[in-house]
Specification:
The chain has 345 residues and is of the alpha+beta class. Helices cover 50% and strands 14% of the residues.
Length: 345
């Protein structure tokens, strides 16, 4: 359970980071009004299955796009930052595709890594080291850093103290003077206006929790049995940009729906109806939506934790068995080599 709990906690915090960044650039927000930058989408390029960033912010006046990667922590700092630079390279390769979504050209791109303030010094040192590797894909545009301070009031601020960088140089800061001016000081985060429930990259349990909550609310409002879940309704939920925060929600909704339905059936939380196609019943009993949702999440957590433990145990047994019983071709090679030596003798 511990491994699963850590995964869930990390995923929840990751979504909180994405929400914090997106909230700064909502239409009508102070930062949107003063800089013109606007939250465009979470998880750009997710539908293509390629490495990308967590948040896409665009300025329609200047044509500049910001791509922000949110990290709750970096266990292998240098390796993970290399991955971010490689994602930047992929984003550049897909510029024409992104422009087709905007309906306008992108004049320039900037790439940002946002982490909690407690992680920033370690991150800055690793970024400084990678600045010395000019052949690394994506490094033609240096990675900029934002830190999220979670104490007192949540706030985000530009971080300039990267070893080896001259903070006065244009390439090591945002080119937009208005944006740079605003981010020199901590900018308070207010996520109360963001209606997005989840993101395409959200943990499966968070996807399930949000859509089941909505299904329960609807059923209670219409007087239908609380436990009824329709595949079409789940797909519609995830096909809404308001719920998912993605420009291609209409295209990816079915993929997210499949994750929730398949896991629900696998974990015994959803039972297919014998009378109606694509209709399921929540197997959790209860008369109140809040009770059903709490029990659904609890049983999901238990089933997911068991699955992780089973997969780990299966992997260990397989590895141990491989050590005890090497592949046949290995013995054939050894036998052939031995036979050759004997013959030559």
């Amino acid at each position: 359970m511990d491994e699963y709990r850590r995964q869930k906690e990390t995923a929840t915090l990751h979504d909180t980071l994405i929400t914090a960044v997106a909230s700064l650039f909502l239409p009508g927000s102070p930062l949107n009004k003063s800089t013109g930058y606007l939250f465009r989408s979470a998880d750009p390029l997710w539908e293509l299955g390629v490495p990308s960033f967590d948040v896409w912010i665009h300025n329609f006046n200047t044509g500049t796009s910001l791509f922000v990667e949110c990290k709750t922590g970096l266990a292998q700092t240098t390796r993970e930052i290399r991955g971010i630079y490689e994602a930047a390279f992929t984003v550049r390769q897909n510029q024409v595709y992104l422009e087709s979504i905007l309906g306008k050209g992108i004049s320039s791109m900037e790439f940002v890594l946002c982490t909690p303030a407690s992680e920033m010094q370690r991150v800055a040192e690793a970024v400084g080291r990678l600045d010395q590797e000019p052949d690394l894909p994506g490094t033609q545009t240096p990675l900029l850093l934002w830190q999220l301070d979670v104490f007192k009031q949540q706030s985000i601020q530009f971080f300039k103290l990267v070893p080896g960088r001259d903070g006065g140089k244009l390439e090591f800061r945002h080119r937009d003077s208005n944006l740079m001016k605003e981010l020199r000081q901590p900018v308070p985060v207010d996520d109360s206006e963001l209606l997005v429930k989840v993101y395409p990259s959200s943990h499966p349990v968070l996807l399930a929790k949000n859509v089941i909550s909505e299904m329960l609310r609807r059923n209670e409002a219409t007087g239908e049995s609380l436990q009824v879940v329709r595949r079409r309704d789940v797909c519609d939920f995830f096909s809404s940009p308001t719920n998912v925060g993605h420009y291609a929600a209409g295209k990816i909704g079915e993929s997210l729906m499949k994750i929730v339905i398949d896991r629900g059936v696998e974990f015994g939380l959803l039972r297919p109806s014998v009378d109606a196609k694509d209709v399921f019943s929540i197997t959790v009993k209860g008369t109140l939506p809040s009770t059903i949702l709490t029990q659904y999440e609890r049983r999901y957590d238990q089933a997911a934790a068991r699955k992780i433990a089973w997969n780990r145990a299966t992997k260990e047994v397989t590895e141990q068995d491989a050590k005890r019983n090497p592949p046949l071709d290995r013995w054939v090679k050894v036998e052939t080599k031995s036979s050759g030596q004997d013959t030559s003798g």
